[in-house]
Amino acid sequence: MSKEVFLGSDHRGFERKNQLKEVLKTEGYNVVDLGPEAYDEQDDYNDAANNVARAVREHAGSKGILICGSAHGISIQANRYKGVRAIEAYTEDLARIGREHNDANVLCLSADYIADNEFDKIANTFLNAEFSNEERHIRRNNKLDEVGEN
User: Fold this and answer.
1) Residue 85's CB: how many other CB atoms inside 10 A?
2) How far is CA 50 from CA 35, 62, 77, in A?
3) What is the CATH number of domain 4-144?
4) So which residues are the catalytic ones?
5) Residue 5 to residue 56: CA distance in whole angstroms
6) Helical (H) or strand (E) element with 21
7) What is the per-residue pLDDT across 28-84, written as a single tens digit (0 to 9) for each?
8) What does the alpha-carbon distance between residue 141 and residue 104 come to, in Å, rounded to a whole number?
């Protein structure tokens, strides 16, 4: 299990990103904050998603966590990168299944729709779950990268 985690957010996820960063550091993760460094109400989720997706793609075995208001936009943006499998998870079960079945390497979290007491649990579940390596999951995941130009 890789302990390298790339974090990114937009303004709506900025506070949650900073809180999660501290939690993950205390748990022994090598956390790389890819921004933003300062709150900017006019920033775009696309920039954070691009930064994290590129980093995860370039660092084999790493994981990424992206945070915005809904988790939708960052998920769409991150999934435009070949080799990146970004999932939205609003529960621990969804985070676990995303790792076990889809070998997801980027977790997209909602700053607006996940309760404070669930936020860290969902992230930890994602980071600690392992891919099943079952043939059917491998076959299906390989098909995810068959289409696209990135």
Assistant:
1) 18
2) 11, 15, 7
3) 3.40.1400.10
4) 68, 101
5) 8
6) helix 14-26
7) 999 999 999 999 999 999 999 999 999 999 999 999 999 999 999 999 999 999 999
8) 9
